[in-house]
Amino acid sequence: MATYLLLLIIAASAFSTLNADVSIDCGSSESYGDDYSVGWVGDDLYIQHGESVELQSSKPIYQPMATLRVFTDRKKNFLVRAYFFYGNYDGKSSPPKFDLHFDGNHWITVETSADQLVSYEAIYVTKTDTISVCVAQTYPNMFPFISAIEVRDLDSKMYGYSDSNRALMLRRRVAYGTEVIVRSTDDFYDRIWVPAVKGDDFTVLTSDETFIEVSLDDSPPRALFQNAFATDNTSTSIQLGTNLPTTKVPVYMNIYYSEASVLDSTQKRSLQLLLYGKINSKPFIPVYGTAGEITLYNLTANSDTTFSLAASPDSTLPPLINALEVFTVSDELTDGTNSDDVEGLASLQDEFNVLKDWGGDPCLPSPYSWDWINCTSGSTPRVTALYLGSFGLSGFLPDFSSMTSLEIIDLHNNSLIGSIPEFLGTLPNLKQLNLAGNDLSGTIPSSISKNKKLKLTVTDNPNLCVSGKSCKTASVDTSGSGGSSSSGGRKKSKLPVILGTTIPIFVLVWVIGGVCAVLHHKRKSEAIAAGNVGQAGGANKPSGNPQAAQMQMAANNMAQNVVNDFIMNVHEQQSAPEPVYNDDQQNHLEEGN
Q1: Are residues 317 and 187 in the same domain?
Q2: DSSP characters for 239-280?
């Protein structure tokens, strides 16, 4: 699917459609509009897990930040969208740290602040018709939470020089010369452009043209081109603040510009991009009343890398700039858990409400797979085991025959009713099936009873017929070995699972040519223990107080000199950038060919 999405931080759950913008106030049940003309809805329809908390503060709090949803009872939790405002909701004065993931990909470790907003943003091409973003507990007694969520559709042409298999992680988005935040009322895609701080060496230019022509694929809002920063003279360059991490990472950068005045024949404004103080582009000339853009990509950089705009040698006017976007580029995105397995798991969740607390990608990232499954490794993992013993499942087993990689199914000690589904005997890789301790009835399907490769346990199902002629009791085990059965702990190297076979062990009595097997009883097994999770690091902390304007600035991680760096796990690229140009007002710089 080729839909682009702007995720102004997302926390977990899945949207069934991607053709509508949404802003979710986590922990709230109200719908309302804010001062930025953004419509907010409560999170009731998007998640059933976690606890809603209303912040108590003597200071005014922007309404979307006044509530949050906290997750205290599991290692992995889900929703969608995300600002993080701790606000000392638990009275412990201990802002938590936890991991953030989207669509099965590790994003970053969130480090919340006692009284400041923390937010993140990513742009990427979705590979399915849903989005999942997760917050995962990584430290003891540090419970993940989320304050608000926004999702925005982008045009498929936007940010088109990025690799569709990788995400753009926002580091900075700034508007030069404006005094107010530029967002939804001016930007159709509701990107948030934070005003740049004016230094002593800059002059604010205001365009003489009231209607700027913008025909760029990235669709920057016209409001950006009404004002610009320019240096006082041609010998002074504009240093571009990037907020990049200390570790070298792949970079994607957009520089926007437009001439502010009609120039006479003696005037010329010509710019060049400098990298480490050296000329790195051909000259480009801003056009009056028209938006222009330089895109820099396929280049690695870090916080020590210097980018600047300088006047060309023949320029009579100093350099100017209207706006800037800086992104880091993620590792290659995973395709997610195999779609057949996702379909099967969805069938189980639809049938059993207790399983609906789990969301997001079932297997990825690998340290955070759902507690009751095992998965293979790889970018498109398969589910190989279901550990649902003693899970409180009640009702009929749904059809999950699409999960063809299953090797173990443990459903013991629940309240399952009805007959044993035929499809369980047709799963090609199934080796162990534990149905003990339920209320199943009818006969065992021949596809199961005649499967000599399958270890089957059906003890303590009083209404289950173990043969076509005798239906009195099913307090038997069709295993070929005696003793008890136990499912053991999930994801441990040695599972104490002893399941039966369908092969008779001793021939005791011959009746009209038939043979009855002696079947040994087994003990019930316990529920599978949930696996532990790992850890990560890094955070962005904007400054200021939790007012509406601060939220918008924090959402973009762009406030100058107040955002902590984070370390991205990326592939470094070594060759130097080389300019590549189009004939229009949009230029593109990429690594040399």
Answers
A1: yes
A2: E------SS-EEEEEEEEE-B-S---TT----EEEEETTEE-
| 341 three-class SS | helix
The Cα–Cα gap between 539 and 549 comes to: 20
What's the pLDDT score for residue 164?
A: 86
d(CA 299, CA 133): 28
Give the whole-angstrom CA distance, residue 522 versus residue 268. Answer: 89
Single out the residue of 7, 13, 88, 75 nearest to residue 44, CA to CA.
13
Out of 313, 332, 351, a domain closes at 332
| Token reading at 123 | 């742009």
DSSP 3-state of 138:
coil
Give the pLDDT of residue 467: 61
Domain boundary among 412, 436, 465: 465
Q: What pLDDT does 539 receive?
A: 36
Residue entry with tokens 């002059």 = 203
d(CA 67, CA 48) in angstroms, rounded, equals: 16
Half-sphere exposure of 89 (CA within 13 A, CB side): 27
Domain that includes residue 125, residue range: 5-154
Distance CA 14, CA 580 (A): 39
Rounded Cα distance between 477 and 519, Å, is 5
Both structure tokens of 63: 């309404």
Q: Mean pLDDT, 10 residues at a time, over the chain (593 residues)?
A: 33 37 82 84 74 79 81 44 85 92 85 90 81 82 87 87 90 95 91 91 91 94 95 94 95 96 94 89 93 94 96 95 96 88 94 89 85 90 96 96 96 96 95 96 92 93 75 45 37 30 29 31 33 34 42 42 28 34 44 36
Residue 310, domain member (yes or no): yes
CB count within 10 Å of CB 379 equals 11
Please tell me the predicted confidence (pLDDT) of residue 136.
84
Phi, psi of 10 (to 5 degrees): -135, 145
For residues 147 and 182, membership in a common domain is answered with no
DSSP 529-562: PPPP-----------S-SSHHHHHHHHTT-STT-
Distance, in Å, from the CA atom of 172 to the CA atom of 5, rounded to the nearest integer, reads 18
Q: Is residue 48 part of a domain?
A: yes
